[in-house]
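HOLO CASE FILE
Compound: zinc ion
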Amino acid sequence: MQITLDSKPFSTLEADALVTYVFDESDPVQGRVAELDKLAGGLIARLSKSGEVTGKNLELTLVHAPAGLKTARLLLVGTGKREQFNPGTLRKVAGAALRYLKTRSVHKVAFLLREGDLNENTAQAVVEGVVAADFETDKWKTDKKNDKFIETFTITGFGDAEKTLLEKGVARGRTIGESVNFARDLVNEPSNKLTPTVLAAKAEAMAKQAGLAVEILDEKKIADLKMGALLTVAQGGPEPPRVIVVTYTPANVKPGAPVVGLIGKAVTFDTGGISIKPADGMEKMKYDMAGGATMLGVMRALAVLKPNVKVICVVPATENMPGGTAQKPGDIQTAMSGKTIEVLNTDAEGRLILADGVHYVKQLGATHLVDAATLTGAIVVALANINVGVFGSDQAWTDKLLASAKAAGEKMWQMPMDDEYREFIKGSFADIQNIGSGKGGGSITGAWFIREFAGDSPWIHLDIAGTAWNDDAKAWLAKGPTGIALRTLVQLITSL
Ligand code: BES
Ligand code: ZN
Ligand code: ZN
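Model generated. Tokens follow.
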């Protein structure tokens, strides 16, 4: 899909479809939409009066051969209430329009920005939305229909004065959108196609192409470093673990400036190990590496956006298998930090591999940490597939992340981290145990476990178990991986 900008009057633009968006308010025919209505001889006002166009969120109204326009179709997308309008809404609006038109074999789409929206942020949101919407999870289907594709997507409705600004937004949106799709493609791969070794090779190729420093630690190096928590998760199956280290170093970084450490859980398949999961729905556990994929996607975007902050990304990658050599409930393992861990449930493996990842990224010099992980079923109970669970040890650092989530239009919700919860993971026979002692709060005890390894460094944990995967296709996104949290993290790092 080619994305372009065209500043000529939108009424003279030739395309298969012109798209714009309509707010849900007492009179939805205002501003740009009123202009369109005038060209089309009052058509939109009539549709509004009859109740067909209301501006309700993601309502789609397609008009063929609209009068006064050179485009073959006009698509009006409901945007919801003006007060709730944000980059997230615009992304969905643009994405829903693209997917709707794509299934109808439309190839050339023009998108009319509304009055007041002629800025970098809105152009970015529109482009992020369409790039993500254009991604299909049909990679392994052999009977693809190849007449369903969008050839060009043109932003219109602006003058020469706004062009440079919009161009910047388009470039940034494309970088972020493509990085989101890079992460989604990794998440969508089944575990037989994406082992820890394959993930590491893909990360290495990405990093080299992007001009990022990369190091892959193999099982021998992992053992030399005494990453006992990661190694003992990996011992349950034949696939060796990997630790992927990708580093972005800006041209001139101030001495003493914060160094961001990103840690992503990459369990390429989680059977649960000896504490084996039920068969029903287990196939979804191929997405248990979404945290790692997100962090690699963030690095890919940073290489292009070039913020003035050093970022070190550590992705521990392994399978969690129940083989004859697997660790067993009650086993005591020694993490890289030297802390001993009682593994009461082998299915709580994400926190184990993150323990070593967090310790290692600090050793490499990171001062401010963020981890992302499909960590707990408990966060799905608490927040469903709507909000990312946010856990933090330092409110100033956490506030920055929450502000970035808001700016990026990703829903995130801060969870409590009272000291009392820490008691739940006190070990009986070792320093700590990897699950809480039966008192609920499963996502919080999971977070506390990781925090034990972050020490005094400001640290944030994002539990994306509920939000990294869409069980159903959305109007704006294919079924499957969502790429959640990537935009927020890019926003956080580029705004530091
Ligand atoms: N990968 C799972 C968490 C998960 C659940 C991800 C649902 C996506 C959807 C994780 O490793 C796990 O199994 N966690 C256990 C922890 C429990 C044993 C304390 C869980 O949530 O059940
Ligand atoms: Zn598990
Ligand atoms: Zn897991």
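CASE NOTES: Residues 270, 288, 345, 347-350, 374-378, 380, 435, 442, 465 surround BES (ligand 1) (CB under 6 Å). DSSP finds 15 helices and 20 strands in the chain.
CLOSED: yes
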